[in-house]
Amino acid sequence: MMTTVSTATTFEALDQGLRDSISTLSICASLRGGWGPDTVLEVSSIATELGDIKWNIEHLKDSMTRAKQDLKYSVKLKEKMLNLSKRLDHMKTNLPHHLPTNKSTGSSASAKVKEEVNNAKDNKENVSPQKTLNNQNKSATKQITIIEYITVEEFESVPKYIRGRLQYDQVNNIVDQINKTLEAKYTLLRKPRAKASDVEMKQITACKRQENNETKGLYFVVDEDLKRWSSLKLDPAVRSMLTVLRTLKRLREVRGPGSLVRYAALL
């Protein structure tokens, strides 16, 4: 049997329904001179409805409690997302210079070659085709082979017994130093003899003595070059990093005569 109490959708309607039911029961009791069986049945029905209402209220309280917990979690999640967004923005604007690229771009000599070629193209209407070709060929010969940075995947592929406790950034730092040495060395070797000082001529002669048939076409450095043109200290850690670069085919060793070891850059 549907009653006002069972169909109430608001607390106000529920209150009014209960008051109406109690009023009806009171009238019935006064007219009959006491509580009859039908009145007892009605009271039992109301008691059942009140039990249902109590259960619904408890269920509503539980739902509200869970909703409050979800709201707190959402606020914390929002804070985490905002912090993550700030970190990503910071990373985006502070990308490390060690990120590898498909093509080496770290050499200023390479940039200079590109600039010279572009200038030749811009001014080609004022230069004969043969002269432009000669200038481009001459510029191309100035490009120095440099070592590309290694990737995280490559670094992690190196056996643990080779890399030991070395860090990824350390290996790419030594790549910078070797490239710096290569550029300084071969810039000196290409310097016109008439413009070289006595000290530079001695260095050029020493560098020429390092060459042999096996190094033809290679750009390489030796320990003395690294001491002269880089900030590296040739300690065991640096030796380990050179081994890592050899393992990853960034360097190749050319030995001899005697204890001389050349580290040749590989494309």
Automatic annotation (TrEMBL):
Biased composition (Polar residues): 101-110
Keyword ATP-binding among record annotations: no
InterPro entries: SKA1, SKA1_MBD_sf
Pfam families on file: SKA1
Compositional bias ranges of the Basic and acidic residues kind: 112-125
Keywords assigned by UniProt, alphabetized: Coiled coil
GO cellular component terms listed in the entry, alphabetical order: mitotic spindle; outer kinetochore; spindle microtubule
Region span, Disordered: 93-133
One of the protein's GO biological processes: cell division
GO molecular function: microtubule binding
Keyword Coiled coil listed: yes
Family to which this protein belongs: Belongs to the SKA1 family.
Protein name: SKA complex subunit 1
Native source organism of the sequence: Meganyctiphanes norvegica
